[in-house]
Automatic annotation (TrEMBL), chain B:
<feature type="transmembrane region" description="Helical">
    <location>
        <begin position="37"/>
        <end position="58"/>
    </location>
</feature>
<keyword id="KW-0812">Transmembrane</keyword>
<dbReference type="InterPro" id="IPR051393">
    <property type="entry name" value="ABC_transporter_permease"/>
</dbReference>
<dbReference type="Pfam" id="PF00528">
    <property type="entry name" value="BPD_transp_1"/>
</dbReference>
<feature type="transmembrane region" description="Helical">
    <location>
        <begin position="184"/>
        <end position="204"/>
    </location>
</feature>
<comment type="similarity">
    <text>Belongs to the binding-protein-dependent transport system permease family.</text>
</comment>
<keyword id="KW-1003">Cell membrane</keyword>
<keyword id="KW-0472">Membrane</keyword>
<feature type="transmembrane region" description="Helical">
    <location>
        <begin position="225"/>
        <end position="248"/>
    </location>
</feature>
<feature type="transmembrane region" description="Helical">
    <location>
        <begin position="132"/>
        <end position="153"/>
    </location>
</feature>
<feature type="domain" description="ABC transmembrane type-1">
    <location>
        <begin position="95"/>
        <end position="313"/>
    </location>
</feature>
<dbReference type="GO" id="GO:0055085">
    <property type="term" value="P:transmembrane transport"/>
</dbReference>
<keyword id="KW-1133">Transmembrane helix</keyword>
<keyword id="KW-0813">Transport</keyword>
<protein>
    <submittedName>
        <fullName>Spermidine/putrescine ABC transporter permease</fullName>
    </submittedName>
</protein>
<dbReference type="InterPro" id="IPR035906">
    <property type="entry name" value="MetI-like_sf"/>
</dbReference>
<feature type="transmembrane region" description="Helical">
    <location>
        <begin position="99"/>
        <end position="120"/>
    </location>
</feature>
Amino acid sequence: MSGLEVDLPVAGGRVPTPLESAVTAAGSTAAEVEELRRRGPRRRMSPGRLFSWIALALLGVVFIYPFVWLVSASFKPRSDVFDNRLIPETFTFDNYIQVWQEAPLALWLANTAIVTVLAAVTVTFSSAMVAWGFAYFRFRGRGVLFGFVLATMMLPGAVTMIPTFLIWNALGQVGTLTPLWAGNLFGSAFYIFLLRQFFLGLPRDLFDAARVDGATQWGVFWRIALPLCRPALAVTLVFEVQAVWTDLMRALIYLRDSATFTVPRGLKSLVDAFGFGGEWHWEIIVTASVITTVPMIIVFFLAQRQIIDGVASTGLKG
Amino acid sequence: MTGTEVRVDSAHIARRTVTPEERERGRRRASRRNLRSALLFLSPWIVGFVVFTAWPMIYSAYLSLTDYDVINIPEFVGLANYAEMLNDPKLLLALQNTVFFTAVQVPLYIIVSLVLALLLDRAGRSSSFFRTVFFLPKMTPPVAVGVLFLLLFNGQNGLLNTVLGWFGIDGPAWTTDPAWVKPGLILMSLWTIGASVIILLAALRNVPEMLYESAKLDGAGFWRTSMSVTLPMISPALFFIIIVNTIAGLQTFDEAYTAFFGAGNTTYSNDAALFYVIYLFQQAFEFLHMGYASAMAWGLFLVIMVITAVQLIVSRRFVYYEGDR
């Protein structure tokens, strides 16, 4: 066992506890060091930089405009929805009142929130566990097994879609929210890959030291490795929140009754009823779109730094 | 000096008290315990793999050889489904649509995200506002993106054609003219480019400054530096997003389904937006041709495998891994 060559980090003549080492190690993250390095000596505004700024500003308008248009359209009366004015000529709250009466939006939002939270928490936890199993333990066949994990990333969802439906059907879960999240209890290949990369970047000595200090295998994972892995966990959480919040196909397959609809499924039913159903009430669809997009935007703003720094530090290098 | 003594001493004790057989036995016991802990951590994936991947794959392969409508017992029909696929004009159309969409969309997607990432990188650290702006559309539900497509790309009074009108261009009927439906969907898909931009930006920021400095010392200009330093250094990230986007492109569903398919939608000539997975979904869950849909799924798997394999082989020449593993 190579675990015998432990190199304990000594601080001030005293061996720090594993938890202390963990805190020190987490104290100045690679991202922060990187940030400092980048700041370096302040650069002057070169012509190249000025050009970049102008280009970004123009493109930024292109990217942000559809949102602004959508929000503005939701305050327009039915007849004006298609005009391209940014500020509504006649400002009205009627659409919001009407949407609330036409569609059980609050219920849909609640269903989606439940599914999203359950899915994101379970997939993050189980993927981290499996990733740790691959990153920390050395055993025969590990490489082959991990190869299988990567191979499942290539498998199109369509191949497993029908038998998976039959499993949930046999379990009597079609029509409930369970199939939308319960598969996540078993981890997901992409996140396992991502988190394993991150775990491999952590100093192994830290974990061996904790073992020597009497921590259990589970304790090493739960109390030391996981807290150090917070940026990567945040990325996993947010990616999964995004994926589940916007998941249409599974909702189409498994949900039957408007009372169990999630937001994408509900929105689709509004598009069918008010868009294509001969009624052409686009103002209802537009307003419902605004209501259902806003929670995601809030989540993103709250987690923005975590996500972007997390992606940067998980080293998606292949 | 004392350190040396201690080490010799402990080695001495170890040699005296533990026989090789005992040590071997202890090591084996430790490794068995190690394996047990490892399996415990891996257990969620192992269970999930068996129940939700391996078994469905086997069962789907079996179903692809049957006629199955969920209600009656699957009836074995041999390779009939696969034979039918070759003679199904709608399937061939769906395949054509999908390959065309992916072949045009992926290169555009990569070029645009690379340009955005380069701009963000050059703009320096205060560009975090723009990172957020470019990532936001990714957080919009695809159903809402489909709705936006129908409204903004509308032929008569959609915003896009209004803007084109300012430049004297008479925009096409993006949402109704079969020739322009796919180009429209491709344009719309560029809006949700955020994740790729951020992955590329992270890769750009990981290029060691040192390399740029030595390139400068060697007198390399912007173009030379880009070709010899920047691109090779970010090629793993580029390759990653090419593969991921190709696989995703071949499975396009949400936006196109929202805009062109579903209950009550008979107003559009939607053949132009009939993508492979949409047709597969219809076969499986609308017409309940589960056997045929399973065969289609394996067809898709084959296409994805071939394309990915080609990309992997081509990439060997162009992707540079630091410290080549």
